[in-house]
Amino acid sequence: MKKNIALLRGDGIGPEIVDSAVEVLKAVADKFGHEFTFTPYLIGGCAIDATGKPLPEETVEGCLASDSVLLGAVGGPKWDTLPGNLRPEKALLGIRSAMGLFTNLRPAKLYPALKEECPLRPDIVEKGFDIMIVRELTGGIYFGERGYREGKYGEEAYDTEAYSRMEIERIVRVAFETARKRRKKLTSIDKANVLETSRLWRKIVHEIAAEYPDVEVADMLVDNAAMQLVRNPAQFDTIVTSNMFGDILSDEASQITGSIGMLPSASLSGGTRGLYEPIHGSAPDIAGQNKANPIATILSAAMMLLYAFDMKAESDAIVEAVDKVLNKGLRTADLCREGTPLTCTEMTKAVIDNL
Ligand code: IPM
Ligand code: MG
Q1: pTM
Q2: What three-state secondary structure class fits 109?
Q3: Which of 8, 16, 169, 326 has the fewest CB neighbours in a 10 Å radius?
């Protein structure tokens, strides 16, 4: 098969980790007889420096015209003082919105080889966990009305959370379908004791549950969920939640896998369109030092092969190679407590050698 992949390397460690995943994709293409072409586009801080805009039109057009998109990370201290609508992060929201990527799948599982890195109690680690977080990605407070105004106490800033029935229904359906292909257990996380948007969310979850009698569904308040994730993560199979809660809970879930450097994600529209990226950020403190863990991006490329191109064997090959490398005890700095850690390029090579 021939596929055109747009590359959004971005800032910080973004270029290093995207280049790693590209090497792995090239090796997979060779092995399985595919032809992947890669076209880079600017996004984030590097786009601001080159064009004055975090998300140039050319980038949006290039992504829309490609078969799939691989993204590294955006942002860094250099651009932190820019106004909100010119910040690198705005580009990430912009591309998600322009591509209609309302679903964000963030799998968090404990690799047996990384049990030692899990910060939880041994009896909790023993039970393991394998969670799929389905995060709504183009609505809620990230996209609501915001601004500055004169309030009761003078200068005031505000952000608003709004969710339409349509937006909730479509993400909740994706979550039920996802749970159906897994262990058939869905936890919907909200703050229905306080927020109106959560009460509508919960009502719709219960309505749609009637269409999925084979899936067990439960509601959980987000504060409790934050606690349950570290108390008993094994209780979760599929989680569905709003944009903001999903952002926070997926970072928490990543840390109990051992390192945020391990978690991939897929952002999907209702159709075949998708963008694949690690859940971690641009890590400016280690940028350009060849220290980053490329595994989250490599696993994001594996998700691309599966979800965008329906290449299951190819995707499994990457996942298995990562497993092998971890089982051999190979570790980048984020996961290494003894000995010399592998560099980003060494880890990439190790994965390719184990394909
Ligand atoms: C993520 C990130 C982004 C988000 C930021 C960089 C805008 O934290 O993908 O989780 O909040 O969605
Ligand atoms: Mg985040």
Answers
A1: 0.95
A2: strand
A3: 169
